[in-house]
Specification:
Distance between the termini: 44 Å
Order of helices and strands: HHHHHHHHHHHHH
Largest sheet: none
Oligomer: single chain
Strand content: under 5%
Helix content: over 70%
Number of helices: 13
Length: 208
């Protein structure tokens, strides 16, 4: 069954390169055991060819699994546009799955390059401002300094401050001194902004 599912997915993906809805209709005619794999293949193929149409479809259907597939494909080709759409989603489940797809797609797009360097090379503007907070949150736990670089590159002041507060809080849970060091090392912060970020650092040391 697993081999047949992979075959059905591959066929559906090829069909969707020319007609996404038709490929989904074909997937729906298959036996139940093959239907889900074929549908995922159809969405992947549709997203590769016409990502905005595929995204509109899965969002209308409130298809969380499908949104991850579509946004992965879309973000590898058009990272800023995909990020803007994902960040605008009101449904938390759809948004979380779309963001998961974004991160996978960006890693694929970056290839062997550092994801931070890849993001820094994106053209400035609203699209990059949508990419950077997502990457900052993803990097905050393991690589707080790289997360801070992504947050600092956000042009919108309110969004930049929110991302920096989140990084400070995440870092402080593991290493209070490291969280304070992030703030102290950023000489671009105004005195007021630095003070506001220090307020996000717990008064007492703790560890996870």
């Amino acid at each position: 069954i697993e081999t047949l599912g992979c075959t059905a997915a591959a066929i559906a993906e090829r069909l969707a390169a020319t007609d996404g809805p038709d490929a989904l209709n074909w997937a729906a005619t298959l036996p139940p055991a093959l239907r889900a794999d074929a549908a995922q293949g159809a969405l992947a193929g549709w997203a590769a060819a016409k990502p905005q149409d595929a995204a509109a479809y899965v969002l209308r259907q409130r298809d969380a699994d499908g949104s991850e597939v579509v946004f992965e494909k879309w973000s590898a080709a058009e990272p800023e546009a995909a990020a803007l759409q994902a960040q605008s989603l009101a449904d938390p489940d759809l948004r979380d799955r779309a963001v998961s797809g974004l991160l996978t797609g960006w890693q694929d797009a970056a290839g062997s390059a550092d994801i931070n360097d890849w993001a820094a090379a994106l053209s400035p503007g609203p699209g990059r401002d949508a990419v950077n907070p997502v990457l900052a949150r993803d990097l905050a736990d393991a690589e707080p300094q790289k997360a801070w670089q992504r947050a600092a590159a956000i042009e919108d002041a309110a969004a930049r401050a929110a991302a920096q507060r989140e990084i400070v809080k995440t870092t402080a849970e593991a290493d209070l001194a490291a969280a304070k060091a992030l703030i102290d090392a950023d000489k671009s912060l105004s005195a007021a902004d630095a003070a506001a970020l220090r307020e996000a650092v717990p008064a007492q040391e703790g560890s996870r």
